[in-house]
Write a structure and sequence with these properties.
The complex is a heterodimer of chains A (858) and B (187). With 858 residues, chain A is mostly helical. Chain B has 187 residues and is mostly helical. The longest helix of chain B is centred in the middle third of the chain and has 27 residues, at 73-99. Classes of the chains: A mainly alpha (858), B mainly alpha (187).
Chain lengths: 858, 187
């Protein structure tokens, strides 16, 4: 029947409808075109059919079909035992959005294999073809964290099916709630999932249906496995808003990205979004929006229009269970914000504003776990100095260490020599002379004025040279006195050789035991400050047995020894050890509290410093305030020791995360520091350094850099030859520049630091590794691969010997890998990879990563 | 509270890619279709299929074709009805797939269903007949979609087409006769 003919038929038929039965016959008889008659008659006959199916709405037809079924599960159960491809269905595992999943065994005799088979029902036309196309892609996805697609096809009756690796596990949310209360653990697990996604993306497959039920964690190995990979893509696409389909839609609205609601393009960014929701859920136990995900319209609107809830709020107002129970330490609010930034970057409405790749996201998650700054918050190649410093509080706090050591000296009264044989010596080294010398060189009593410490030094040494020359045979005791004076003035490099010479000579002599002990103690201190650690330890070892007895002098020397040990531990970055030493010092002085209050003050100051170093801030504050009060009571508020005690307190507040309070202590004494010690003094330098730290914490970077630079100058010009300290201050300047992305300037500054440390810092000092790492990072950021490689090599060489800082080593290895990759030097050499394993494994705060040493073969 | 724009304006806006218009349109269509669907299923008793599912699926198909020119409400409802038709057929097939016994999946009118349920066969038959009709008579084909698949009442269709109801009924009679004439006998 063609259109023209039908037009005629219709015309006639409509007329016929209005006629009575008799009239119809007549009309038909009268038709011009007689061969239309059979059609018309047939059609008229059809009018007699009373209950044609077309008389009820189509929807009702189907409704009828549904209503006739007794039991949903009948058919599904009936499938058990049937053969599907090379497998036989054994039991039903569950029913998903698009079909039912069965556990099945391979029965084609080739080998043993258990799989999960999904029968894909509700397969609409066109699906089958796409199904076949995509299968090849999915089969090629090979990753330990992806449930492998084993086979696929159609059953005899045309039901498409997929056979996948059988995963015996529980959904990732369940697993985390049962076994992983901590944030770091959950993030590490998520990273594995992210790596799997990254692999898939490299194979041009987007998952599109990331949700907890699609990520099972195996019971045996706690390995996460992604399921239904690309199935959403396979079974796609009724246009965009598929998640509102309750029956046919495979996707969970809860995890759907905005573009999945609006029908926009699906891409890698879609997976990033969904992963972000998952991450949010794992951390907080809830979804990122306040609407009810089951109400598709309200939920869709929320996803499209509302901003995701911030991490802070989600954690504060926990609803229901789930989410981490430990680990989100709020102490440094920075850290919290970094994680929030990562999440926001995943959940951005505009796909272009999310992480461009899973790799970028993984990078940030690792950075977060490492304590390094995250790209999401800082963007580009930034490197926030404050965060770096959080891991390197030693460099930050060291400004006061030398100071404290020196504090001890001036009050340390020298031992009186009573040897008869050395009257002349005694004359030379009479208490009075000593007093004079001490006074001359005691910076705490000095008035800055016109006489700098250097002037004092020169004056004193003039005196000393004269007397030495006059009594050339007096030798050692005088040398020791002079050396002590040098220490007072901070000229440790001058003091050290004098001890080196004098002490061996004194060993054989019949001296009052404590005299020798005193020399050993001061010598050990000078040696330590000069980097001669072996010698320092040796002298201290020799010293200890000599300190029997509880005379005041012995107690003093002992406290001096403890002070040196404390400095050694602290300089070595061993905060806990230093704390133990400090506690020992407090215990040692306790019986003499009344008689030696100044030593008590010193011990208290050390203890407070150590408590702050290990993060026990409340206790540290108590001790440091007490030390300050003691000092004021003993020496007066204007005395140098009180000022330095206050400086230490300022440093404490800075370290404890209260830079404003720190500045409240540090700024008022700055002027006094300059008055008392001089602008070119290490004490003033320390004040500036600590203020720099506080400014930096407050984000006042420009002020911080100015303070550090001035500090460096102060140290440079001081007699203490603390060029190491110059380096510390400049290092912080470098960090700030680095953090601002001013990489070329940062690198310049780092070089300055390196130069200044050439002679003044031990070759294997821990901070060198940090410096090399920073230089490598800056060079890498400037795309200077060669320089970066050279520095990272040095960093790693240094770090290998430093087992307690596994994290920095692992970061260095990561950076090394980055640098090598950019230079086209992959894969990682096996040795380096093993380092990573070993390192990461040793540090229990670090979850081991999977390291690939060979590229995956396809 | 925003004024709901007229559906034609909305359609125009949607055609230009206005996302908010799309949302509004969604709401509007949702309401309309719910009404339609509910009225068609009301008498069939309790049904596992949720009317709103029908609604959503239909809407989805339409929004998938968003590029098309949508000139007026009439055209829009026609499009909707077309979508409903597709959806119902799909669902019918999938239901048959799931619910029927082993070894059966072919939608083949010559195969008889084991438990005697003919609904799907009827559906397919009507669809196939309709495919013949719409090729030669667009108006009647549309009508069948609107009435049979989308479940619109004659009065509604009359309003839509600006015809009187009697005319619509007559058209329906004609279409019906054609369909029945062109459906293969069953059983």
């Amino acid at each position: 029947m063609d259109a023209a003919r039908w037009a005629a038929v219709r015309r006639h038929f409509e007329i016929l409808l209005d006629l009575a039965r008799e009239g119809r016959a007549a009309y038909l008889d009268a038709l011009d075109d007689a061969d239309l008659r059979p059609d018309l008659e047939r059609m008229l006959a059809r009018r007699e059919d009373d209950e044609a199916p077309v008389d009820q709405p189509a929807a009702r037809l189907i409704a009828g079909a549904i209503a006739k079924v007794d039991d949903d599960g009948d058919w599904e159960r009936a499938q058990i035992g049937r053969r599907v491809g090379a497998f036989r269905l054994e039991s039903k595992l569950g029913a998903g959005g698009m079909g039912t999943v069965y556990r099945a065994q391979r029965v084609d005799g080739r080998f043993e294999q258990v799989v999960a088979i999904k029968l894909v029902l509700a397969a609409h036309p066109g699906l089958r073809e796409r199904f076949r196309n995509e299968q090849g892609i999915l089969a090629g996805l090979n990753h330990p964290n992806i449930a492998q697609l084993v086979d696929g096809g159609e059953t005899e009756d045309g039901i498409p099916y997929l056979a996948m690796e059988f995963v015996d596990g529980v959904p990732i949310t369940e697993y985390c709630n049962a076994h992983l209360p901590g944030l770091a653990d959950r993030l590490a697990l998520s990273i594995k999932v992210a790596e799997a996604l990254s692999q898939a993306h490299r194979n041009l497959v987007v998952h599109r249906d990331i949700k907890p039920n699609n990520i099972l964690v195996t019971r045996e190995e706690a390995r996460p496995k992604l399921l239904d990979f690309g199935i959403a893509k396979l079974l796609g696409n009724h246009g965009g808003a598929q998640m509102t389909l309750q029956k046919l839609g495979p996707m969970t609205p809860a995890y759907a990205a905005p573009e999945q609601f609006t029908g926009g393009a699906i891409s890698v960014a879609t997976d990033v979004y969904q992963f972000g929701v998952l991450l949010f859920r794992l951390i907080t136990g809830r979804l990122p929006y306040d609407a009810d995900p089951d109400d598709s319209i309200a939920w869709g609107r929320a996803v499209l229009e509302h901003e995701p809830i911030t991490l802070g709020r989600a954690l504060r107002h926990r609803t229901g269970e789930g989410g981490v129970r430990e680990g989100v330490r709020m102490r440094a609010r920075d850290i919290h914000r970094d994680l929030d930034a990562i999440l926001q970057c995943c959940l951005a409405k505009d796909p272009a504003r999310r992480y461009g790749t899973m790799d970028a996201l993984i990078g940030d998650l690792r950075a977060f776990l490492d304590g390094r700054p995250v790209q999401a918050r800082h963007g580009g190649n930034l490197y926030r100095a404050a965060r770096f410093a959080a891991r390197h509080r030693w460099s930050v706090g060291l400004g006061t260490a030398a100071l404290l050591g020196l504090v001890g000296l001036t009050v340390f009264s020298l031992v009186q020599w009573r040897s008869a044989r050395h009257e002349a010596e005694r004359a030379l080294v009479s208490a009075q002379f000593t007093e004079e010398l001490l006074k001359a060189t005691d910076p705490f009593n000095a008035r800055g004025g016109t006489r700098t410490a250097l002037d004092l030094m020169n004056a004193a040494s003039e005196v000393m040279q004269r007397k030495l020359a006059a009594h050339a045979d007096l030798g050692n005791p005088a040398a020791v006195q002079i050396a002590n004076a040098y220490i007072n003035l901070g000229a440790l490099s001058l003091a050290h050789p004098l001890y080196e010479k004098a002490i061996p000579e004194m060993r054989g002599q019949a001296l009052p035991p404590l005299a020798y002990a005193a020399a050993l103690e001061r010598g050990a201190f000078a040696a330590q400050r000069n980097g001669a650690l072996e010698q320092s330890r040796a002298w201290l070892a020799e010293l200890e047995p000599l300190l029997a007895g509880e005379s005041h002098d012995a107690v003093r020397i002992r406290d001096g020894m403890i002070g040196t040990l404390w400095l050694i531990a602290r300089d070595g970055g061993k905060a806990e050890e230093a704390l133990a030493v400090a506690e020992r010092g407090v215990a040692a002085i306790a019986p003499h509290r009344a008689a030696l209050p100044d030593i008590v003050q010193r011990a208290t100051l050390r203890l407070g410093t150590s408590l702050t170093d290990v993060g026990r801030f409340a206790e540290g504050e108590v001790q440091l305030r007490s030390a300050l009060d003691q000092s004021i009571a003993l020496f007066g508020a204007a005395h140098g020791r009180s000022i330095t005690a206050r400086q230490t307190l300022g440093w404490h507040y800075s370290s404890a995360g209260h830079p404003e309070r720190g500045l409240a202590e540090l700024e008022p004494i700055a002027t006094r520091m300059r008055e008392v010690f001089g602008a070119q003094s290490q004490w003033y330098g320390a004040n500036l350094h600590n203020r720099g730290n506080a400014y930096r914490q407050l984000g006042r970077d420009d002020q911080a850099m100015a303070a550090y630079r001035e500090s460096a100058e102060a140290y440079r010009g001081s007699t203490s030859e603390n060029s190491a300290q110059v380096g510390w201050a400049l290092l912080n300047v470098g960090y700030i520049l680095h953090g601002r992305g001013r990489l070329a300037e940062a690198l310049e500054v780092y070089r300055e630091v390196s130069d200044s440390w050439r002679t003044s810092m031990a070759a294997d000092a821990p901070i060198r590794a940090d410096l090399e790492f920073a230089m490598a990072d800056a060079a890498h950021g400037m795309q200077d691969g060669e320089t970066a490689a050279a520095h990272i090599e040095r960093a790693m060489a240094l770090l290998r010997a430093r087992p307690q800082d596994g994290r920095l080593l692992a970061s260095a290895l990561a950076l090394s890998g980055e640098i090598a990759r950019v230079r086209g030097e992959l894969p990682l050499p096996a040795g380096v990879a093993q380092d990573r394993h070993g390192v990461a494994g040793a540090d229990t705060g670090f979850r081991p990563w999977r390291i690939e040493t060979e590229p995956r073969s396809r | 509270m925003r004024e709901r724009r007229a559906i034609t304006t909305l359609l125009g806006a949607v055609a230009e890619g206005d996302r908010t218009a799309e949302g509004e349109l969604y709401d509007l269509v949702y309401a309309e279709l719910k009404r339609i669907a509910r009225s068609t299923l009301r008498r069939s008793g309790s049904v596992t299929m949720n009317p709103s599912t029908l609604v959503h699926e239909a809407y989805l198909k339409i929004s998938a074709d968003a590029g098309r020119e949508l000139n007026d409400s009439n055209h829009f409802y026609s499009l909707l009805a077309r979508a409903m038709r597709q959806v119902i057929l799909d669902v019918g097939r999938s239901q048959a797939t799931v619910k029927h016994g082993e070894g059966l999946l072919r939608v083949d009118l010559t195969t008889s269903l084991p438990d005697g349920d003919r609904s799907l066969e009827h559906l397919i038959g009507i669809d196939q007949a309709l495919q013949k009709l719409e090729v030669i008579d667009r108006e009647l084909g549309d009508l069948v979609e609107l009435h049979f698949f989308a479940g619109l009442a004659f009065a509604e269709i009359a309003r839509l087409r600006d015809q009187n109801e009697r005319t619509v009924r007559r058209h329906w009679e004609t279409a019906r006769a054609f369909l029945l004439d062109h459906m293969a006998p069953i059983g």
